[in-house]
Design goal:
Rossmann fold, eight-stranded mixed sheet, 275 residues
Length: 275
């Protein structure tokens, strides 16, 4: 079996997979969670600066570079790249995420970030960018999506995913209480895209970054976010909402929930082969 098939099967067995039935719920969740997500990634900016520093050390960022950020979210990387390159096209299928990004760009005085509301599957971009970046993006989850990054790039590609850590510990424990047994999938393991590239003659470079990150949120906001999240996967009744309230409440102080976790990112970078 090929690595492409292995990757497809890993996503098929993932409890988090997007289905015909839940796609609209995923979209609604991202739209409504955009502001909270921006606050979270802003508190973790030191981690993402390390990614930017790594790309800069490779000589991949400069004032004449145009970057495409696939699945940009509220601007996790787009906001940091803007001052390093000529332009950033921030692509996401969530209007909520792009609205938050636009507001943040205005607040920071950034004029070279262009939001683009489009799904990556339908983007069909050819050689428009010097660097194409996809970070923790469900949009790039197949070999087709991976090689579409090359198609959009004039030279450089970067794929970022999470390493094993306790980052999702809270979500996983709540899943067991609200949905049922959580059977993790390794669908976002770097081994799949890495070996797909190797099989086709590419020579990807791997680099790992780790950090301990901490962020405070109003407990009610965290509860409401998890209620919205679990509605993607199950019907939420009063008992399930109460379980989330009790879990978050017992780990809060003065109405504030502090999340302190280890976070690990794997950065895979490679050059587009000559035509």
């Amino acid at each position: 079996m090929s690595w492409e098939d292995e990757w497809r099967m890993a996503h098929e067995r993932s409890p988090l997979r997007v289905t015909v039935e839940n796609e609209w719920r995923w979209n609604e969740y991202w739209d409504r969670s955009a502001a909270q997500y921006l606050r979270e990634v802003s508190s973790e900016a030191a981690l993402y600066h390390q990614v930017i520093d790594h790309l800069q050390s490779k000589g991949w960022l400069g004032p004449e570079e145009d970057v495409l950020d696939i699945g940009c979210g509220p601007g996790t990387y787009s906001l940091l790249l803007a001052n390093k390159v000529r332009s950033v096209t921030a692509l996401d299928s969530s209007l909520g995420m792009l609205d938050v990004l636009s507001q943040e760009c205005k607040a920071r005085g950034l004029e070279n970030v262009r939001p683009l509301c489009r799904s990556w599957e339908r983007a069909n971009i050819e050689k428009g960018y010097d660097l194409v970046l996809a970070a923790l993006s469900p949009a790039v989850s197949t070999a087709t999506g991976l090689f579409a990054m090359e198609k959009a790039s004039r030279s450089k590609c970067c794929y970022i995913t999470a390493c094993v850590s306790n980052w999702m510990k809270t979500r996983n424990e709540l899943w067991e209480m609200v949905v049922g047994e959580f059977v993790p999938s390794d669908a976002y393991s770097i081994k799949y895209p890495f070996n797909i590239l190797l099989e086709t003659g590419r020579l990807p470079d791997l680099h790992h970054i780790t950090a301990t990150v901490e962020v405070d949120f109003p407990s009610r906001q965290v509860i409401d976010n998890y209620v919205r999240y679990f509605r993607i996967f199950t019907a939420m009744d009063l008992a399930k909402v109460k379980a989330i309230e009790d879990y978050i409440g017992s780990r809060s102080q003065g109405g504030v929930y502090t999340r302190r976790t280890d976070k690990c990112l794997c950065i895979m970078s490679w050059n587009r082969p000559e035509d």
